[in-house]
Design a protein that fits this description.
Elements (H helix, E strand, L loop, with lengths): L40 H6 L5 E12 L5 E12 L1 H6 L1 H39 L6 E12 L3 E11 L6 E10 L8 H4 L6 H10 L12 H6 L8 E3 L3 E6 L12 E6 L17 E6 L5 E3 L9 E10 L5 E8 L2 E5 L6 E9 L2 E9 L7 E5 L6 E6 L2 E3 L1 E5 L5 E6 L7 E8 L3 E10 L6 E2 L5 E3 L6 E3 L4 E5 L4 E5 L4 E7 L4 E6 L4 E5 L1 E2 L6 E3 L2 E2 H4 L8
Parallel strand pairs: 2-3
Antiparallel strand pairs: 1-2, 1-20, 3-4, 4-5, 6-7, 7-8, 9-14, 10-11, 11-12, 12-13, 14-15, 15-16, 16-17, 18-21, 19-20, 21-22, 22-23, 22-24, 24-28, 25-28, 26-27, 26-30, 28-29, 29-30, 31-32, 32-33
């Protein structure tokens, strides 16, 4: 099946985004066992998270002869971890096909935009103006990834001339075991009442005037199961309607969440089982419906986004909004940001990762409990983990791990100790404070990124594990392995043994020293970020 989301201009121009090519999945309702339909604590504990990565796969751009940007095209690919590829081979194969289709789509899109840009270039020159940049972009936001379902929201936009860009969301939902793409009737046992439910939810939103959508229920009743655009989460299913789909373009993107606890009779119980803790990716300036406090009898709305664009080209602040109450994170000066809603044993937090003028990132944590937003803490020079991926052609690239499991996740912290590098620990979210905590004693430096230092002079190190002191001769090689982030770095010697290099900061000039000797006197080259 191929699914398309249309961005409709006033002239009814369509902009399609292709999904994966998969056979229509069998309805799992008939295959559900009594165990699958038992939403018990045992089932909650049985939820196993998948590790999903995104790769910034296609970065295409062209220029005019006088170096004006003409076109820019960017999109992402999806990958499972190597372990999950072995555990769920059909899902891995489905994602491979999905990635191939995306690649073909965006390469064709780049050619199309090149043609548009070339046609329009002369008009801009005649007017003495800089030509517009024609763009197409795609980014994935993980909504759910476990041993039952993988649900991804694709945020896409395109500008190919006209008064404004076109944009919208596409939902892709895969059965983890079979790899087949799900349709709404796989998850909802009866969709006959869905048009009425969605119409009521959308029309009741405060930002829309009465009658704004016209005969919405009638419009939605004409949708087939394949035409609904949705993602599946741990509290319900969220439906997406792109600008101009059910109302004028000015209405923007319209969403509605149908919660499991509101209509339990409509859902296949297999998909409604939620773990005690999970995380969901948020995108900017789109209201996300969630039930943060089930005991208060109301649902909640969360939105996040960069604000106050500066003359220097960055955003100064970031706004967090909970049920209309705004909290401003000031002076972040970011070009972009990552946002995650974290549920840790029923307590909710926002993890915010701004990206600014350098490669160093901080993770800012905010507490949503108590029906207000409060600062919880911060991790300096820390980001979510990534890995180097190798494809079937032995080409390598960097992929980013999508955060979804608050009980076990990897964070990378940047250090300047015998060089600049990132080293990681495995963390879990403290449900009371919201802060990441680790039982790992040390930070591990990935061997693919670790520096190999060569000594210029002999000096004493501690040989592991017995910590016996030994004089290591000049010309020895040290491959960095791990650090406590403050007082030492462990390294592997050329003969395979491991040693500990104790370091301290000179209080006068803050220069790093080893046994009282400045580091640059002991090693030939040390690589620090500028």
């Amino acid at each position: 099946m191929k699914k398309f989301i249309s961005f409709v201009l006033a002239a009814a121009m369509l902009f399609g985004f292709a999904a994966c090519n998969a056979d229509k999945p069998e309805n799992p309702v008939n295959e559900s066992t009594s165990a699958e339909n038992n939403n018990s604590a045992e089932m909650k504990n049985a939820v196993e998270f998948l590790s999903v990565y995104t790769e910034n796969a296609y970065e295409y751009e062209t220029y005019s002869e006088d170096y004006y940007y003409l076109t820019q095209v960017n999109y992402q690919k999806l990958h499972l971890s190597k372990e999950d590829e072995k555990e769920y081979p059909r899902l891995a194969k489905a994602l491979d096909s999905f990635n191939v289709e995306k690649t073909e789509f965006y390469k064709d899109k780049a050619k199309e935009l090149d043609e548009y840009a070339s046609e329009q270039l002369n008009y801009y020159y005649e007017d003495g103006e800089q030509p517009a940049v024609y763009t197409a972009n795609n980014e994935y936001f993980l909504q759910r990834a476990d041993n039952v379902v993988l649900s991804i929201r694709s945020d896409a936009d395109e500008f190919s001339g006209g008064a404004h860009p076109n944009y919208g969301y596409s939902g892709y939902n895969f059965d983890t075991v079979t790899g087949k793409e799900l349709v709404i009737t796989d998850v909802m046992t009866d969709i006959s009442s869905l048009p009425a439910i969605l119409s009521e939810k959308i029309n009741s939103k405060d930002k829309f005037a009465d009658g704004f959508f016209g005969a919405l229920e009638e419009t939605l009743s004409e949708y087939t199961a394949e035409q609904f655009n949705w993602t599946i989460g741990y509290q319900g299913i969220t439906f997406y309607f792109s600008p101009s789909e059910i109302a004028s373009f000015a209405a923007g993107l319209v969403t509605a969440t149908v919660y499991y606890d509101e209509y339990p009779e409509l859902f296949n119980k297999k998909y409604t089982v939620a773990p005690e803790s999970y995380a969901v990716a948020l995108s900017e300036w789109n209201d996300v419906e969630f039930d943060i406090n089930p005991s208060d009898g109301k649902k909640d709305t969360i939105s996040v986004g960069l604000s106050y664009f500066t003359e220097e080209g960055s955003y100064k602040d970031i706004s967090l909004n909970l049920n209309g109450d705004e909290f401003t994170v000031e002076d972040v000066y970011a070009f972009s940001a990552e946002y995650y809603l974290v549920n840790s044993n029923g307590r909710y937090f926002i993890y915010l990762v701004p990206h600014g003028y350098n490669d160093y990132t901080n993770i800012l944590i905010y507490d949503l409990n108590g029906n207000e937003i409060k600062e919880a803490g911060e991790l300096d020079r820390t980001a979510f983990g990534s890995l180097v991926w190798e494809d079937e052609n032995e080409d390598t690239y960097q992929a980013k791990l999508l955060f979804n499991n608050p009980t076990q996740f990897v964070l990378e912290t940047t250090f300047d100790i015998l060089g600049t590098y990132a080293a990681d620990k495995t963390y879990t979210v403290n449900s009371e404070t919201g802060m990441p905590e680790s039982t790992d004693e040390f930070y591990t430096i990935d061997e693919r990124f670790a520096f190999v230092l060569t000594s210029k002079e002999a000096f004493n190190v501690k040989i592991l594990p017995d910590m016996n002191s030994e004089l290591v001769k000049a010309g020895s090689e040290f491959t960095l392995l791990r650090t406590d982030g403050k007082t030492f770095v462990d390294a592997k010697l050329g003969d395979g043994r491991e040693c500990r290099i104790n370091v301290e900061r000179n209080r006068t000039d803050y220069q790093l020293c080893i046994n009282g000797t400045p580091e640059y006197e002991l090693f030939e080259e040390i690589y620090y970020a500028g």
